[in-house]
Amino acid sequence: MTIRPYEPADTDALYDICLRTGDNGGDATGQFADPRLLGEHFVGPYLRYEPDLAFVIDDGAPAGYVLGVRDTPAFERVCEREWWPPLREKYPPGSFPAGTRDAAYVQRLYESHTADPEIVAKYPAHLHIDLLPRAQGQGMGRALMERLLAALHAAGAPAVHLGVGAGNTRAIAFYERMGFQTLYQSPNGRTMGRPTT
């Protein structure tokens, strides 16, 4: 397995990895009628606006990725201006039956996407990392994270934060081993952060 920069031909595979890790690290394929909806939130805008901060685990095909943003408020502004409006046209309210995960993520398209100002003041960058089972347990997650941290540092971001669901205990333990500390915690999950060096 190798780690390499994202290439545009990877896009569909990264959307698929997002779906296949979208249930607290487990496979969410059966939970969505639209297999691209989760990736439209957590993959697409990162590849569009920060492709230089996207890295892929490759073992002949993409097996994991990390996606980063150096300036979260600036990213949120460009998404609100350019990324979310076409998706709101594609997915009007009521596109999916109430109570489904698809409906919940359509609703998110119409909600504010603003990170906590107190967190981004100290941890302006943020990231998403997802690995398929075949890439786990081999040190690739750590190597992928170190690659992004170095790139964020070189881009001038002093610190980075991330969000993780409360049920994803394996990921929480991994982040703690990577030096992330809990910044905010709720019953649904937590926000964690660390310096980029």
Low-confidence stretches: none
Q: Which architecture would the CATH scheme give at its second level?
A: 3-Layer(aba) Sandwich
Helix content: 40-55%
The gross shape turns out to be globular
Average pLDDT level:
96
How many structural domains are formed by the residues? 1
CATH class call = Alpha Beta
The CATH topology corresponds to Aminopeptidase
Helical segment count: 8
Report the major sheet: 7 strands, mixed
Number of strands: 7
Tell me the fraction of residues in β-strands, as a range: 15-25%
Strand line-up across the major sheet: 1-2-3-4-5-7-6
Supply the key terms:
197 residues; alpha+beta; Aminopeptidase; 7-stranded mixed β-sheet; 8 helices; 7 strands; 41% helix; globular; GNAT_dom; Glycosyl_Hydrolase_84; Acetyltransferase (GNAT) family protein; transferase
How would you concisely characterize the structure shown here?
Helix content is 41%, strand content 22%.
Structure, explained:
The protein is of the alpha+beta class and 197 residues long. The chain has a single domain (2-157), classed as 3-Layer(aba) Sandwich (Aminopeptidase), CATH 3.40.630.30. The chain contains eight helices and seven strands, in the order E-H-H-H-E-E-H-H-H-E-H-E-H-E-E. The protein has helices at residues 11-20, 37-42, 44-49, 72-90, 101-109, 117-122, 140-154, 169-177, and strands at residues 2-5, 54-58, 62-69, 125-131, 159-165, 181-186, 189-195. Strands 1-2-3-4-5-7-6 form a seven-stranded mixed β-sheet, with helices on both faces. The longest helix has 19 residues, at 72-90.
